[in-house]
Amino acid sequence: NQREWHNKAAELILPGLVSKFMQNQSCLHKLLSTGTKLIAEANPNDSFFGVGHGLRSTDLWQKTAWKGRNIMGSLLMDVRAQLATDTQTNQSLSAVLAETRAVLADS
């Protein structure tokens, strides 16, 4: 049933998106390089996952003109926020480990 799917879609898709970006560094880099920009699923035929406008539509650039819910764009922004935090944490941990190794090597 479509109503059930719409109610469960985000929670079912989110773990897959996280896995996708964790496994593909190139895709992760592209996602993180968007910074804090708004991400929109430009699909004129999908008003649930997309914004209901295609890439050539001037309405794509006006959020108030969107006909869709942009669930995929929202999910991608959630993934970006989560993985950006994880990436920063991992980089910090890597720096601490490298520093610890250097200290231990000197002693």
Describe this structure in words.
The protein has 107 residues and is mostly helical. Helices cover 62% and strands 0% of the residues. It is built from three helices and no strands. Helix 1 packs across helix 2 and helix 1 packs parallel to helix 3. The protein is elongated. The model has no long low-confidence stretch (mean pLDDT 89).
As a percent range, the share of helical residues equals: 55-70%
Shape call: elongated
Please trace the helix and strand order, writing H or E for each element.
Answer: HHH
Which residues sit in consecutive blocks of at least 5 with pLDDT less than 50? none
Averaged pLDDT, please? 89
Overall strand count: 0
Q: What is the terminal-to-terminal distance?
A: 65 Å
Largest sheet: none
> Strand portion, in percent?
under 5%
Structural class: mainly alpha
Number of helices: 3
The Cα radius of gyration reads: 19 Å
Give the structure's gist in a few sentences.
With 107 residues, the chain is an all-alpha fold. It has helices at 2-23, 25-32, 71-106.
Fold topology:
Layout lengths: L1 H22 L1 H8 L38 H36 L1
List key phrases describing it.
107 residues, mainly alpha
